[in-house]
Design goal:
The complex is a heterotrimer of chains A (405), B (249) and C (404). By secondary structure, chain A is of the alpha+beta class. Chain A contains 15 helices and twelve strands. In chain A, β2 and β3 form a beta hairpin. Chain B is globular. The chains are: A alpha+beta (405), B mainly beta (249), C alpha+beta (404). The interface between A and C is large, with 64 and 60 residues. Chain A: Belongs to the ABC-4 integral membrane protein family. LolC/E subfamily.
Chain lengths: 405, 249, 404
C-alpha cells in the first residue's frame, strides 16, 4: 500500500522526480566513465610497451638472462610452443632469435639487437606492424630483408630499399655478415627501441648461423586478457622448471612502477568523483524534501503515522535512485562502449604530442564488476542522503509544517 | 690489431708479366700479390684529425689464417701494448698495468677505434675478389703508371656496405694505387690512395696508404710500411698469452 | 537597491542558502583536491626521475647528445660552476665525466659505462649511496671504483678485488688502469645494475687523459616551476659551443607520458565538473521550485518579472560566491596540509615505488594558479546553473504559482 503511494508520489511531481533521476543517472554515468578512462589510461600505457615488443610474458633460458649470448638458446622450444598452442588464455606467441651485433652502412655503424622472427607470428603477438611508417613487415620480395626503426635509419643515413649490413657472431665465434634490404621502417614511442632493434626473418638468420632449426632465445607471449596473467605464468613455470618464465613487470620494472602509480590515482579520482556525486545527490534530496514539507505536514495532520511517512519517503527515494541508477548504467555503459570502439584521441588535449599511434589514443573500459559496485554505491548513497532530511521532515510538528509555503 | 690485414690485402706477390687480363683476374692478381702464408712487418699508423694527431709504430707477426700478433713500439705511452688474435679470440696486453685483458666478442665487430679504417677494410679477407662483380672501365694514367680502372659492384648477398667501388690497378705489377668507395646513392664516401712505391721483402708495392673520408675535412688515416718479410718461419706457439708479456719492443 | 534586496533574501532563508552554498563549496574543494593530486603526481614523477638520473638542467657541449664521445667533453670556463651554484633557484651543481670502458677480472671482460663524479655533490643530488649493499661509498679523489651489483656478479668480483680498466681516452690515447673495488650498489634499473661503474671525477680525468674535462654539469633546482626562467638566464652565462638542455629534452618519453597522463587527467576533471554541475543544478532547481510561491506572490504584488529575475540572478551570484570562497577557505589549507604531509601508500603500490627507490607517497601540488582556476570554474558553473531560475521566473504564471 505504501509502495503504491510512493509510486504515485514519484510520478505526481514529474519535474522533481525527473531532476532527481537525471542527477543520479548522469552522476553515475560520469563516475563510470571516469573509472573507465583511468583504467583505459593504465592499460594503454602498459599496452604500449607490451604491444611494442614485450608481450605479457616472456620465456628465456636462465643462462640467457644472465648472459645474452647466442649459445644460450632454449634447448627444446617445441615442447613449450606445443603447450602454448593448447592454452586458451594465449592470444599469440613469437619465438625469437636474438643476436647482439652491429648494423652498418657506408657512413656509420651502430650496436643493435638483431631479432629473427616469423613475420606472421610476430604480427599477431605485437602491434609493431601498426607502427610502420613506411614499407612492410618482412613481406617483400628480396631474398634477405630487414625492418628497422626510423631513428636508426637516420643515424645510418639509410632509407627504404637501402642496403644494410648486419654483423653478428655465430656459435663458434665466427663473425657473420648479413646483407639485407630495408623493407620497412617503424616509429614507436621509444626512441631507444627504434635505435636498437632490427627485425629480420628468422629463417634468414638460421641459415647464416648454420643451424638446421631456428635457435630460440626468447618466446614472447601475448594473452587475450591481462587478467589471466598470473594463472598462465604459474602454469608455464610449473610445466618448465628449467626455463625462466617472467611477466612484463619483471622484465621492465620501470613500467610496473608507472602502471601501479596510475592505478593508485584511479582509485583516488574515482573516489573524489563519487564524493562529488554524493554531495550533489544529498543536496538535491535535501531540497526535494524541504520542498515537500508542506505536503508532508498535511499528510501527518490527516493521520499518517510518522513512521509510515518516513518509510514512504524512503521508498520513493529507492525507486528514484533505482531508476536513476539503471539509467546511469545504461548511459555510462553506452558511452564507454562507444569510446572503447573509437578511442579518445588525447592529442586533442595536449599540444606537442606527436602522433605515435597507440600511445595517444585512450580506450576506456570497465570490468563488469565495477559497474555493479559503483551502481550499488550510488543507490545506497542516494538513500542515505535522503535519510537525514526525511528524518527531519517527520520530526516536524504537523502544524508548523503545514504553515510552510 | 686489424691494420695488418690491409697490409696483406695490398702486398704484392710475384709479379706476372702483364698480359691483358679480364677484370676479375686483375683483381685476383692484385689481391694475391698481397698474400703470404706468414709475414713479419713494421709499420706506422698516423691518425690525423682537425683537433689532434696520433702516431703509432708497430711490429706485426701474422700466420694465416688464424694468428696475428701486434706489438706497439711507439709512442712511449703505448709502447709494449700487445694485441693477440687467436682464431676468434682477441687479447690485449697493457704494459702500464702489466695485465692481459680478453676483448669480448662484441668489440670485434666494431673495427679499430679512432681510425678511418672500418671493420670492413681490415678484417675481411679476399672480399674484393669473391664479394664483387668486376668490370673493366678503361685505362687511366695515375702517378705516371698505366692503370686498369675497374668498377666493382658488390654481389647482392655480400656483406659489403658499399654501393660501388672504383679501383685503379697498375698494369705492370698489379698494384692498387687508388680506390674510391661509394654508397648506394653513388655518393663518394671515402678514398684510399697508395703511394711511395718501393721494393720491400722482395716485392714491389705502395708502402704508403692514406684513407681519406670525403665528408670530414682535415681528417685522414695514413698507414706506412717500413719493412716486411714474407713467409718467414713462425711457429704457431709464438702466438701465446705468455709470449705477449715476454715481448720487448 | 537590487543588491540590498538580493542580500536580504540570501540571509532570509539561511538553511536554503547554506545548502546551495555548501554544494558549491564542496565542489570547489573536490576540484582542488583532484587537480592538486594530479599536478602533484607529475611533479613527483619528474622530481624522482631527475634526481635519479638527469637532473633538471645540464650544461653540455652542443654536439654531445648526438655524439657521446669524450671528444665532446669540455673544460668548464673559469667561474662557471660558481656562477651556476650561486644562481637563485639552483640547489645543486654536480660535474660528471661519462665514458665507456672494458672492465676485466680474470678472463671475464665486460663493456661498461664509466661515470666520473664528485662523490659528495653527486650523492647529495641523487642519494646514490642509499643503494650501497657492500663496502663503502666513494670519497673525493678516490682511487677505487664502485660498481653495480649485477656487474660484479658477472665479473665474479667482490669488495676488495681488483679489476683492469681499458678504454679509449681523450684524443684516442689508451686509457688503462688497475682499480680496487671498494663498494657495490644494488641499483634499481637492471641495465644500470649490470653496467654501471662509478669513480671519482679526478681519477677518471687522470686515467682518460682528460684533465679538467667534464661531459656535463648537472643541476637540480629548488622549484621545478622556475626551470624555464633559470634555463634562459643560464643560457646567457654559457658560452658556445656549450648549451643548456632540460630534462624534457633528455627524457622525452617521460615528458610524453606526463602529457598523456595530464590529458586524461583533464578528462577526469571535466567529468568531475559535469557531476558537480548536475549536483548544483539539481539543488538550484529544487530551490527554485521551493520558492515558486514566493516568486508568484512578488510578481502578483507588482514586482516586474525582469526585476525578479535580476534579484534572483544577483542572489545566485552571491550565494555561489560565498560557496566558492568557502571552498577556497577549506580547500587551500587542505591541499597545503597534504603537500606537507603526503598520503602514504601501502601494499603492492608502495612496493612498486620502493623498488625504484622512490618514496611511496601520493604527492600534492599547491600552485596558486591552480586554486584560483578551480574556484573560478566552479563559480562559473554555479552561475550558469543560476540561469535556470531566470527561465523559471520568466515562464511563471503568478496565479498558478501562488496556489502552490
Amino acid at each position: 500500500m505504501l509502495f503504491l503511494l510512493a509510486w504515485r508520489n514519484v510520478w505526481r511531481n514529474v519535474k522533481r522526480s525527473t531532476i532527481i533521476i537525471v542527477s543520479i543517472a548522469l552522476g553515475l554515468a560520469g563516475g563510470l566513465f571516469a573509472g573507465a578512462v583511468m583504467m583505459g589510461m593504465g592499460e594503454s600505457m602498459i599496452n604500449s610497451a607490451i604491444d611494442r615488443n614485450l608481450g605479457h610474458l616472456q620465456i628465456h633460458s636462465p643462462a640467457y638472462r644472465r648472459d645474452a649470448l647466442v649459445s644460450n638458446y632454449i634447448r627444446s622450444p617445441q615442447k613449450v610452443l606445443s603447450l602454448l598452442d593448447t592454452l586458451g588464455s594465449v592470444k599469440a606467441y613469437s619465438a625469437r632469435t636474438l643476436l647482439e651485433g652491429m648494423a652498418s652502412s657506408a657512413n656509420s655503424s651502430y650496436g643493435v639487437t638483431i631479432t629473427g622472427v616469423d613475420p606472421e607470428r610476430e604480427r599477431e603477438t605485437t602491434a609493431l606492424v601498426s607502427m610502420l611508417v613506411a614499407g612492410n613487415f618482412l613481406a617483400d620480395k628480396y631474398r634477405t630483408q630487414a625492418v628497422i626503426g626510423k631513428k636508426l635509419a637516420e643515424r645510418l643515413g639509410l632509407k627504404l630499399k637501402s642496403k644494410i649490413i648486419l654483423t653478428f657472431q655465430d656459435r663458434s665465434g665466427e663473425i657473420v655478415y648479413m646483407a639485407a634490404r630495408i623493407v620497412g621502417l617503424f616509429k614507436t614511442e621509444s626512441t631507444a627501441f627504434d635505435e636498437m632493434t632490427v627485425f629480420v626473418r628468422q629463417k634468414d638468420v638460421t641459415r647464416l648461423l648454420g643451424a638446421r632449426k631456428p635457435l630460440i632465445h626468447e618466446i614472447a607471449i601475448r594473452l587475450k586478457n591481462s587478467s589471466t596473467l598470473p594463472a598462465t605464468k604459474a602454469r608455464l613455470a610449473s610445466g618448465f622448471s628449467d626455463l625462466k618464465v617472467e611477466e612484463w613487470r619483471e622484465i621492465a620494472p620501470e613500467l610496473a612502477f608507472m602502471s601501479t602509480s596510475v592505478e593508485s590515482f584511479t582509485y583516488l579520482f574515482v573516489a573524489i568523483i563519487i564524493f562529488a556525486l554524493i554531495f550533489g545527490i544529498t543536496n538535491t534530496m535535501l531540497m526535494a524534501v524541504m520542498e515537500r514539507i508542506h505536503e508532508l505536514g498535511i499528510l501527518m495532520a490527516v493521520g499518517m503515522k510518522r513512521g509510515r511517512v518516513f518509510i514512504m519517503i524512503l521508498m520513493e527515494t529507492l525507486l528514484l535512485s533505482f531508476v536513476g541508477g539503471m539509467l546511469g548504467m545504461l548511459i555510462g555503459g553506452a558511452a564507454i562502449a562507444w569510446f572503447n570502439h573509437f578511442g579518445i584521441d588525447l592529442s586533442a588535449f595536449a599540444q606537442g604530442l606527436e602522433g605515435f599511434g597507440s600511445g595517444t589514443t585512450l580506450y576506456p573500459y570497465l570490468p563488469g564488476v565495477m559497474y555493479a559496485a559503483l551502481t550499488v554505491m550510488i543507490v545506497v548513497a542516494a538513500n542515505i542522503s535522503a535519510l537525514m532530511p526525511a528524518w527531519k521532515a517527520v520530526r516536524l510538528k504537523p502544524a508548523q509544517a503545514v504553515r510552510v509555503y | 690489431m686489424k691494420p695488418i690485414k690491409v697490409a696483406f690485402l695490398l702486398l704484392l706477390g710475384c709479379v706476372t708479366a702483364g698480359l691483358a687480363q679480364n677484370a676479375t683476374e686483375i683483381i685476383r692478381k692484385s689481391d694475391e700479390l698481397m698474400r703470404a702464408n706468414s709475414s713479419i712487418s713494421e709499420l706506422s699508423m698516423k691518425i690525423i684529425k682537425p683537433e689532434w694527431t696520433r702516431e703509432m709504430r708497430m711490429k706485426v707477426w701474422a700466420l694465416e689464417p688464424d694468428f696475428t700478433l701486434v706489438l706497439i713500439t711507439a709512442p712511449a705511452r703505448d709502447k709494449g701494448t700487445v694485441t693477440l688474435k687467436r682464431k676468434q679470440e682477441v687479447w690485449n696486453y697493457l704494459p702500464s698495468v702489466r695485465r692481459t685483458i680478453k676483448i669480448p666478442p662484441s668489440m670485434m665487430l666494431q673495427g679499430w677505434m679512432g681510425s678511418d679504417f672500418t671493420n670492413d677494410d681490415l678484417v675481411r679477407q679476399s672480399s674484393i675478389v669473391v664479394d664483387y662483380e668486376h668490370k673493366l672501365a678503361g685505362m687511366e694514367k695515375l702517378d705516371g703508371y698505366d692503370c686498369y680502372k675497374i668498377e666493382m659492384i658488390p654481389k647482392p648477398e655480400a656483406g659489403v656496405v658499399w654501393g660501388k667501388v672504383l679501383i685503379w690497378v697498375t698494369r705492370k705489377g698489379f698494384m692498387q694505387l687508388k680506390a674510391e668507395y661509394y654508397d648506394e646513392d653513388a655518393v663518394l664516401v671515402k678514398t684510399m690512395r697508395g703511394s711511395d712505391i718501393r721494393k720491400l721483402g722482395g716485392r714491389t708495392f705502395p708502402t704508403r696508404w692514406a684513407m681519406i673520408p670525403n665528408d670530414k675535412p682535415g681528417q685522414r688515416t695514413v698507414l706506412i710500411y717500413h719493412d716486411i718479410r714474407f713467409n718467414p718461419k713462425i711457429k704457431s706457439s709464438f702466438f701465446s698469452l705468455q709470449n705477449m708479456k715476454r715481448l720487448r719492443p | 537597491m537590487l543588491v540590498k534586496l538580493a542580500w536580504k533574501n540570501v540571509w532570509r532563508n539561511k538553511k536554503r542558502t547554506l545548502i546551495v552554498a555548501a554544494s558549491v563549496m564542496f565542489a570547489v574543494v573536490l576540484a582542488i583536491l583532484m587537480r592538486s593530486a594530479q599536478l602533484g603526481s607529475y611533479a613527483y614523477m619528474i622530481d624522482s626521475a631527475t634526481h635519479l638520473q638527469t637532473g633538471y638542467l645540464q650544461v653540455q657541449h652542443r654536439d654531445y647528445r648526438e655524439n657521446r664521445s669524450l671528444e665532446k667533453s669540455y673544460v668548464p670556463p673559469v667561474g662557471l660552476k660558481d656562477t651556476l651554484t650561486q644562481m637563485t633557484g639552483v640547489s645543486a651543481v654536480a660535474p660528471r665525466l661519462e665514458t665507456f670502458a672494458l672492465v676485466s677480472h680474470d678472463s671475464v671482460t665486460r663493456a661498461v659505462g664509466i661515470q666520473g663524479i664528485d662523490p659528495a655533490a653527486e650523492d647529495a643530488m641523487t642519494r646514490l649511496s642509499k643503494w650501497l649493499v657492500k663496502g663503502s661509498f666513494l670519497e673525493k679523489g678516490d682511487s677505487s671504483l664502485i660498481m653495480g651489483a649485477g656487474l660484479a656478479k658477472k665479473l665474479n668480483v667482490t669488495v676488495g678485488d681488483s679489476v683492469v680498466l681499458y678504454g679509449m681516452g681523450y684524443h684516442g690515447q689508451t686509457a688503462a688502469a688497475i682499480l680496487n673495488v671498494r663498494g657495490l650498489l644494488e641499483l634499481p634499473l637492471p641495465q644500470l645494475n649490470n653496467s654501471a661503474v662509478l669513480m671519482s671525477l679526478s681519477r677518471v680525468q687522470y686515467i682518460y687523459m682528460a684533465p679538467g674535462r667534464v661531459t656535463a654539469l648537472v643541476m637540480m633546482l629548488d622549484h621545478p616551476d622556475e626551470m624555464a626562467r633559470i634555463k634562459t638566464e643560464l643560457a646567457r652565462h654559457v658560452p658556445a659551443p656549450l648549451t643548456v638542455i632540460d630534462w624534457q629534452e633528455m627524457m622525452p618519453e617521460l615528458k610524453q607520458y606526463i602529457q598523456i597522463d595530464n590529458a586524461s587527467g583533464l578528462i577526469m576533471l571535466a567529468i568531475l565538473y559535469m557531476v558537480i554541475a548536475f549536483g548544483v543544478f539539481g539543488t538550484v532547481m529544487m530551490m527554485t521550485a521551493e520558492r515558486e510561491r514566493e516568486f508568484g506572490i512578488l510578481n502578483a504584488l507588482g514586482m516586474k518579472k525582469t526585476r525578479l529575475m535580476a534579484v534572483s540572478a544577483v542572489e545566485s551570484v552571491m550565494v555561489s560566491f560565498i560557496g566558492a570562497l568557502a571552498g577556497l577557505a577549506l580547500g587551500i589549507p587542505l591541499a597545503l596540509y597534504y603537500v606537507e604531509h603526503p598520503i602514504r601508500l601501502s601494499g603492492d603500490l608502495a612496493a612498486a615505488y620502493e623498488t625504484l627507490g622512490i618514496e611511496p607517497v601520493m604527492s600534492f601540488s599547491a600552485r596558486p594558479d591552480m586554486f584560483g582556476a578551480q574556484a573560478l570554474v566552479v563559480f562559473v558553473i554555479a552561475v550558469f546553473c543560476a540561469l535556470y531560475p531566470l527561465f523559471f521566473i520568466r515562464r511563471m504564471r503568478a496565479s498558478t504559482a501562488i496556489r502552490h
